[in-house]
Amino acid sequence: MDSLKRKSEILKALAHPSRLWIIESLYEKDRCVCEFVDALKVDYSTVSKHLSILKNAGFISSKQSGKERWYSLRTPCIKNFMDCIETMIPQTESEQTP
């Protein structure tokens, strides 16, 4: 049961559109906090909270470079999971249409 609980906690970390966007943006390259703030159009503290949740779940890692903190994808296999979810979207949309 502990394994299922941990899996549930990890999946909860993905349960926000901004965090999904952060994950997908890290497929391409490492990014600094300022890039997330600009792209998401939210304040630094909000981005910091999202990054903390993703980091604690094990999806991303960070490193300090000068005054900036850079984030990278720690688990590239998440792309396969996200691709799987993407294939489900048309199916679930058609099932919800009356």
Automatic annotation (TrEMBL):
GO terms assigned for molecular function: DNA binding; DNA-binding transcription factor activity
This protein's UniProt keywords: DNA-binding, Transcription, Transcription regulation
Domain HTH arsR-type residues, every copy: 1-93
Domain of life: Bacteria
CDD domains: HTH_ARSR
Xref: InterPro entries: ArsR-like_HTH (IPR011991), HTH_ArsR_DNA-bd_dom (IPR001845), HTH_MetalResp_TranReg (IPR051081), WH-like_DNA-bd_sf (IPR036388), WH_DNA-bd_sf (IPR036390)
UniProt protein name: ArsR family transcriptional regulator
Native organism: Chitinivibrio alkaliphilus ACht1
